[in-house]
From TrEMBL, chain A:
TM ranges: 70-90
Subunit structure as annotated in this protein's UniProt entry: Complex I is composed of 45 different subunits.
Organism: Cyprinus carpio (Common carp)
GO cellular component, one term: mitochondrial inner membrane
Coarse class of the protein's main subcellular location: mitochondrion
Record membrane topology: Single-pass membrane protein
Keyword annotations of the record: Coiled coil, Electron transport, Membrane, Mitochondrion, Mitochondrion inner membrane, Respiratory chain, Transit peptide, Transmembrane, Transmembrane helix, Transport
Name of this chain's protein: NADH dehydrogenase [ubiquinone] 1 beta subcomplex subunit 5, mitochondrial
Location(s) in or outside the cell: Mitochondrion inner membrane
InterPro entries assigned: NADH_UbQ_OxRdtase_B5_su (IPR019173)
Function text: Accessory subunit of the mitochondrial membrane respiratory chain NADH dehydrogenase (Complex I), that is believed not to be involved in catalysis. Complex I functions in the transfer of electrons from NADH to the respiratory chain. The immediate electron acceptor for the enzyme is believed to be ubiquinone.
Keyword Thylakoid: no
Pfam family, one: NDUF_B5
UniProtKB/TrEMBL annotation, chain B:
Compositionally biased spans, kind Basic and acidic residues: 1-10
Role according to the record: Accessory subunit that is involved in the functional assembly of the mitochondrial respiratory chain complex I. Complex I has an NADH dehydrogenase activity with ubiquinone as an immediate electron acceptor and mediates the transfer of electrons from NADH to the respiratory chain.
UniProt-listed PANTHER family: NADH DEHYDROGENASE [UBIQUINONE] 1 BETA SUBCOMPLEX SUBUNIT 10 (PTHR13094:SF1), NADH-UBIQUINONE OXIDOREDUCTASE PDSW SUBUNIT (PTHR13094)
Pfam families with a match to the protein in the record: NDUFB10 (PF10249)
Swiss-Prot/TrEMBL keywords: Electron transport, Membrane, Mitochondrion, Mitochondrion inner membrane, Respiratory chain, Transport
Annotated Gene Ontology cellular component terms: mitochondrial inner membrane; respiratory chain complex I
Tree of life domain: Eukaryota
Membrane topology, record value: Peripheral membrane protein
Name of the molecule in the record: NADH dehydrogenase [ubiquinone] 1 beta subcomplex subunit 10
């Protein structure tokens, strides 16, 4: 074993010493050294040798990014086109004083045409929302008042006992058998 | 009588916009930059907007500022009249927004004045400074530490505390 390594180092040393004069040495085969050929610059007409590069898969990442771009652009381009054309061809509204005797519609209080369209098509007027809220508050206030009244009335009826609530049904007078009571001292 | 001081030795400060008196032959970088900005950004954008204005349809729609009627305040509502409370609360919120915008306008004025006057703003912008101080003090005393969940009730209670403190002092 030691002799083998000694041979190997010797072969390498001689090879380095005399690079030109390198016959096929038997020690080459024994010591597994590869004869180093001269480095010659070669010009290929192509991109070089085709390599199969081994790397982890990027299929899922690329698929995800592709789908992301696709779905964003699918809605993005129509939206961008619509907004551009609205801004160019319709344009924003101008501020004006409210004319005499004229009640503007609720969407006429906004500037941008798309905001106006949304307010006109989807939203209720703020006045209507205000009135709806006031109606809800009125209903709840009446409910609260009713409940307070009911508690008060319960208290009164329980105390005084002359009202229709808290009446305990007693037996009919005519069903009482008075016959044992006519002779008390049996 | 001793003669007055030599006006050339201690010249008076120039009035508002001084005429520039360049003494170096180097080109003014501010001028170069402003011209650059004008030709590269300002002119194209302005021509674009003018073209758009020509292109858009002639008839313009208008938008208005909504005018709200005054309703009875919280102090004028009957106790238990929740609808009145709601209307007073909404009115108070609108007034709060208006007051915030007023403060912003006064701040903007002071900022513009300071920018104009430069280092001598504490003398030249005296009116704006006084106005700003007054307005911000008033805003602080009325709406000061009410917080994010401010309401008309809390503001009323704050006013009550203020009046009590004043009475205590007097």
């Amino acid at each position: 074993m030691v002799g083998m390594s000694f041979l190997r180092t010797a072969a390498a040393f001689t090879a380095r010493l005399n690079p030109l004069k390198r016959t096929c040495q038997a020690s080459n085969l024994l010591s597994r050294t590869v004869a180093r050929t001269e480095q010659v610059v070669v010009r290929h007409g192509s991109h070089g040798k085709r390599m199969f590069i081994i790397k982890p898969t990027d299929f899922y990442d690329r698929r995800f990014l592709h789908l992301l771009k696709y779905y964003i652009i699918l809605a993005g381009i129509p939206m961008a086109a619509i907004v551009t054309f609205v801004n160019i061809f319709i344009g924003e509204s101008e501020l004006a004083e409210i004319p005499e005797g004229y009640e503007p519609e609720h969407w006429e209080y906004y500037k941008h045409p798309i905001t106006r369209w949304i307010a006109r098509t989807f939203y209720d007027s703020p006045v209507k929302d205000y009135e709806k809220m006031m109606a809800l508050i009125q209903i709840e206030a009446e409910k609260a008042e009713m409940r307070q009244l009911q508690l008060e009335v319960r208290r009164h009826m329980r105390e005084k006992g002359d009202g229709p609530w808290f009446q305990i049904q007693t037996l009919d007078k005519n069903l009482i058998d008075h016959s044992p009571k006519s002779s008390p001292d049996n | 009588m001793p003669k007055d001081h030599d006006k050339d030795v201690y010249p008076e400060p120039p009035s508002r916009t001084p005429v520039e008196d360049r003494q170096s032959s180097l080109p003014n970088p501010a001028l170069i930059l402003s011209k650059l900005f004008y030709y590269s950004v300002d002119l194209p954008v302005t021509t674009f907007r003018v073209c758009l204005a020509c292109l858009s349809s002639g008839k313009k729609s208008h938008y208005y500022h909504q005018k709200f009627r005054r309703v009875p305040e919280l102090t004028q509502c009957q106790e238990g009249d929740y609808v009145c409370y709601y209307e007073a609360e909404m009115q108070w919120r609108r007034d709060y927004k208006v007051d915030q915008e007023i403060v912003k306008v006064i701040q903007e004025r002071l900022r513009a004045c300071q920018q104009r006057e430069g280092p001598s703003y504490s003398q030249n912008c005296y009116k704006e400074l006084q106005q700003f101080e007054q307005v911000s003090k008033a805003f602080q005393s009325r709406y000061g530490d009410l917080g994010a969940y401010a309401s008309a009730r809390k503001c009323l209670m704050k006013q009550k505390e203020r009046m009590m403190a004043e009475q205590q002092q007097a």
